Amino acid sequence: MADHNENFAPSAEHLKAQQPSGDGATKPDQPPQPTETASVSSSSRDTKREASWPSVLFYIHLNILGVYGIFVLFSHTSLITCVFTFLLTLFGILGVTAGAHRLWAHRTYEATALLRFTLMIFQTLAGQVTRNATERFGKRSALLDCSKSCLQKLNRKAHWGSIYDWVRMHRLHHEKFRTVDDPYYSDKDFMHAQVFANIRKLSPRQEQLLAAVDMSDLEADGIVMFQRRFYWAMYLVLFVLLPINAPLEYWGDTVQAAIFVAFSLRYLIVLNVAWLINSAHFVWGLDKNHKQSDSNMVFVVTKSYWPQYHYLLPFDYQSGEFGNYGSGCTTAFIRIFAAIGQATKLQTITTEAVKRGLTMAVDSGRPIVE
Ligand SMILES: [Zn+2]
Question: Which terminus of the chain is more solvent-facing, meaning fewer CB atoms within 10 Å of its CB: N or C?
Answer without folding.
Answer: N
